[in-house]
């Protein structure tokens, strides 16, 4: 298979982009306002934006794109760590092989205990997190975990974040009915990639780079990509991420389902002083805005690595999914005394997160309708590009939030949430969809659950 990341080409593109004129930036922003996306060449130029007026115009446009394609909806999920054993020695990770601490892999019984705690908080969507060590957490155990969670709990969708693997293993994950496969390249700079993954299984750059291809060929329809911001020059990595996105669209007729944009954070035996490419808050905001303009249909995920204030701001400028009430530890929901993979900043409870979102006129969502209706992969890309899915997203979000408010909310939450949700239903423009949403809303008030369009 051809290598689609050409470092010389990207470096030349970025060098050329340094001379981008203000009029060229204006022209790109004008095209961005059409909300049809931008090329990786446009992205390389926007990453060089210097004029504060143009920067603010860009961010305002990103807010408009977010509003058009996502409205005020925000999907919520929680990570579930089941093993911190790892044979890799990633220099930036608290779980690296050389770190000496008491590791564990949760049994199925312990996993169900963790999930039960998450369920009691109100979670419906989880992201399964696993280190790379088949001796301690095999694919058999991962598959058994997925099957047990689906059969023994009320969790409706499991996304999976595991190490790059074979097409055959991706076929097994597909048959297990996972949601999105999440896999980060970490950095697309090949030389830097080798530096931060010394003597590791993960140190095979092309194995990592082509994993999404194998996953799609193995039957997984939705795949998520991302980079760890701070490892390398962010301009190189974001341009390469867009090239990767274009590669998937050209080859498979589908984009990444989501972009994840974690920033490098302190961790066990990890000092940020060792990383010269850390990005500022202002650079981070620009990255989110640029990706929202470039790929309007791709979800953007933001974790609890970021503060509440930063998350609130970026929700307005492009982010469409956030984790909530997260623990980056194995068994962390039942046991606080564990080594964390990285430091967290937003430690609000799920209740408080949802309350704050509603108070800020944001609509939390636990919707899993597209997965269960078969609107995934290429079909999802076609449906979302046509605008058809967007008509269903708001009512489905309203119904999942109503379910949370009725089952987990107290009087204080219901006092602000119920009028807010009625307002959201009445704002649905399509008469037929609004009528069905009102019918489902009423049925849920009467005790029914898990209704979706």
Automatic annotation (TrEMBL):
The record's annotation in NCBIfam families points to: rSAM_HydG (TIGR03955)
CDD domains per UniProt: Radical_SAM (cd01335)
Q: Which residues form the Radical SAM core domain?
A: 70-305
Gene symbol here is hydG
Keywords from the named record: 4Fe-4S, Iron, Iron-sulfur, Metal-binding, S-adenosyl-L-methionine
Q: Can you provide one Gene Ontology molecular function annotated for this UniProt record?
A: 4 iron, 4 sulfur cluster binding
GO annotations under biological process?
A: sulfur compound biosynthetic process; water-soluble vitamin biosynthetic process
One short Pfam name that applies is: BATS
Q: What is the official name of this protein in its record?
A: [FeFe] hydrogenase H-cluster radical SAM maturase HydG
- Domain of life of the source: Bacteria
PROSITE patterns xref list = RADICAL_SAM
Q: Which organism is it from?
A: Entomospira culicis
Cofactors per UniProt? [4Fe-4S] cluster
């Amino acid at each position: 298979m051809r290598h689609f990341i050409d470092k010389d080409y990207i470096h030349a593109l970025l060098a050329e982009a340094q001379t981008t004129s203000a009029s060229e930036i204006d022209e790109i922003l004008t095209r961005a306002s059409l909300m049809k996306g931008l090329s990786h060449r446009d992205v390389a130029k926007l990453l060089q934006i210097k004029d504060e007026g143009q920067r603010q115009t860009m961010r305002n446009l990103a807010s408009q794109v977010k509003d058009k394609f996502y409205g005020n909806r925000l999907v919520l999920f929680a990570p579930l760590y089941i093993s911190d054993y790892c044979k890799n020695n990633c220099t930036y990770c608290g779980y690296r092989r050389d770190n000496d601490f008491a590791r564990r892999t949760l049994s199925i019984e312990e996993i169900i205990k963790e999930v039960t705690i998450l369920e009691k908080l109100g979670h419906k969507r989880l992201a399964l997190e696993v280190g790379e060590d088949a001796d301690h957490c095999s694919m058999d155990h991962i598959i058994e975990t997925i099957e047990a969670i689906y059969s023994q709990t009320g969790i409706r969708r499991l996304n999976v974040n595991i190490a790059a693997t074979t097409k055959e293993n991706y076929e097994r994950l597909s048959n297990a009915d996972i949601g999105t496969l999440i896999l980060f390249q970490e950095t697309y700079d090949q030389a830097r990639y080798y530096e931060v993954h010394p003597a590791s299984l993960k140190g095979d750059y092309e194995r990592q780079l082509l994993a999404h291809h194998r996953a799609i060929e193995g039957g997984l329809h939705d795949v998520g990509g991302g980079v760890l911001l701070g490892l390398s020059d962010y301009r190189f990595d974001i341009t390469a991420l867009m090239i990767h996105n274009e590669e998937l669209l050209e080859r498979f007729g589908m984009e990444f389902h989501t972009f994840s944009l974690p920033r490098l954070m302190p961790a066990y035996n990890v000092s940020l002083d060792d990383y010269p490419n850390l990005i500022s808050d202002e650079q981070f905001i620009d990255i989110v805005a640029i990706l929202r303009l470039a790929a309007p249909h791709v979800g953007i995920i933001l974790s609890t690595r970021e503060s509440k204030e930063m998350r609130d701001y970026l929700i307005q400028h492009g982010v469409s999914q956030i984790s909530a009430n997260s623990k980056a530890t194995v068994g962390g929901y039942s046991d606080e005394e564990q080594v964390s993979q990285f430091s967290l900043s937003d430690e609000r409870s799920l209740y408080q997160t949802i309350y704050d979102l509603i108070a800020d006129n944001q609509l939390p969502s636990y919707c899993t309708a597209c997965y269960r209706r078969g609107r995934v992969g290429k079909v999802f890309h076609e449906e979302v590009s046509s605008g058809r899915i967007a008509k269903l997203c708001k009512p489905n979000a309203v119904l999942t939030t109503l379910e949370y408010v009725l089952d987990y909310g107290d009087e204080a939450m219901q006092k602000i949430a119920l009028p807010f949700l009625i307002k959201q239903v009445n704002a649905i423009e399509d008469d037929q969809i609004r009528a069905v949403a009102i019918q489902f809303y009423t049925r849920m008030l009467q005790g029914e659950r898990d209704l979706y369009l």
